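Quick one: structure for this chain?
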Amino acid sequence: MSTYLKFWNLQRSAFKAQAGSEDFFRTPQLDALMKRISYFCEHGEPLILITGKRGMGKTLLADKIQTELSVDTVDVAEVNLHAPVHESGWLINKLAKFFNQSVKSNSEAEPQANADMLLRCFADLHQENRKLVVVVDDAQFVQGPRALSDLEQLMKIHARARNSFSLVILAEPDFQDTIQTSSLAEYITLSAALLTWGRTDIEEFIRYRSRNAGLGEQVFLTEALKVIERASGGNPARITTILEHCLMEAFIQATKVVSESVALQAASYLKREDYVETVAVEEEEDSVPQHIPTSPRISFADLMRKKV
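Got it. Here's what it folds into:
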């Protein structure tokens, strides 16, 4: 165990994202969204679209959908994209493997043959009174009409498959434009955007993760929370990073309390471009012209104090 963890009496990092479902934190918005996703998937609604910027928790949500919806009558096939795809077959091949089937390729009969194969598989699910949820994470990597055709082909057979499956797409916001200019738009039954966190969300997140990790309460002072909210822009990934830096900075300063000055120092370790992006978003929302000082004589801490 590191000296840092011993200082806080922790067995593991308190805020660093973990794969386990016990670390999945639900804001009220996210809790309501999960309930809607569950309902629509259990009823075989065709297409659910969830968008969010990088760091908003799309992949964690995709994993949570898989763990929560994988029950006796529902199967989940998760497809995680990590690089751009431009050709067809990326999704059909994944589903074929899920059903232990082979696919036709390099022939004019390929689309119809693969559609027939999927229909047979979905018919078997219907006979067993089961449903399949297909989750595609980072769908913004689906680029070009050939790659998009896999999604369109799947949607075209939805009615013929007797609503035995649902498609859940998680992507960055720009992908919504791709959806709206394709035939997929007509199949959307739920479209939602992941929202940034406010002060209350951040406080509840700290309590939740602190409780799970065994970190004492009242570690973060109110003024520190203001700094964290402002510096992160409400982005969950940035919040997590700043919180980890806060604990490390407090350890370095040998204090068991995260004060405003500790939080300011911790926030300064964020990438500068992340902070600039946050300020730009706030300017657009508030419609108040703001100037970001670029002189090296103005420290990050001074800048944050002005904004807080």
